[in-house]
């Protein structure tokens, strides 16, 4: 996570490409949480900021953008993030036969991947993942911040039963301080 003088935080992770203007979005993070170092707990994959990504970010931030332009641009950004997440999945070499009878040595996904969306905002990324991987299993987690302790807690989790054996693409497009993602990665179930 990097902060700059304008109050903007940029975080790009395996399934998230977020450039969030924190000057307009108050964070529930306590001062003690600000001092914690979670860098060892997250494996962050940074997407290269291209002109295409900047253009899409400009459209979704423009107050004059139409709803249609906003949705199209947000979906495109989600798709780019999903595709980069898929690049991080394990592949295996495979050989197929083309329609003209020639063998082609290519790649296939190794079995055992799934997607998990953090309910509400993460669900916006599900269609992008399904567009790229039609048969992938998708689970859901609801994480909310406890008002008294200001700590993220898992309230609901419906994931594939063998999720601990799978490579998980965690879908959550809003990332201010990472506590929600860290709680999801820890894999603690909802309170009894």
From TrEMBL:
Membrane-crossing residue ranges in chain numbering: none
Listed CDD domains: PRTases_typeI
Cited Gene3D superfamilies: 3.40.50.2020
Start and end residues of each Phosphoribosyltransferase domain: 50-186
Parts forming coiled coils: none
SUPFAM superfamilies: PRTase-like
Superkingdom field: Eukaryota
One family name in Pfam for this protein: UPRTase
Protein name in the entry: Oidioi.mRNA.OKI2018_I69.PAR.g10893.t1.cds
Species classification: Eukaryota, Metazoa, Chordata, Tunicata, Appendicularia
């Amino acid at each position: 996570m990097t902060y700059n003088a304008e109050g903007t935080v940029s975080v790009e992770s395996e399934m998230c490409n977020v450039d969030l203007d924190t000057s307009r979005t108050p964070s529930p993070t306590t001062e003690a949480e600000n001092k914690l170092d979670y860098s060892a707990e997250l494996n962050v994959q940074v997407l290269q900021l291209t002109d295409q990504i900047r253009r899409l970010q400009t459209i979704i931030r423009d107050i004059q953008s139409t709803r249609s332009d906003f949705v199209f641009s947000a979906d495109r950004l989600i798709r780019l993030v999903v595709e980069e997440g898929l690049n991080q999945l394990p592949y295996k070499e495979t050989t197929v036969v083309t329609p003209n009878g020639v063998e082609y040595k290519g790649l296939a996904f190794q079995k055992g991947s799934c997607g998990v969306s953090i309910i509400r905002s993460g669900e916006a990324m599900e269609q992008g993942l399904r567009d790229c991987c039609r048969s992938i299993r998708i689970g859901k987690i609801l994480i909310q911040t406890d008002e008294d302790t200001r700590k993220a807690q898992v309230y609901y989790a419906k994931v594939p039963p063998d999720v601990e054996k799978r490579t998980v693409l965690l879908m959550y497009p809003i990332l201010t301080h990472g506590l929600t993602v860290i709680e999801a990665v820890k894999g603690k179930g909802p309170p009894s």
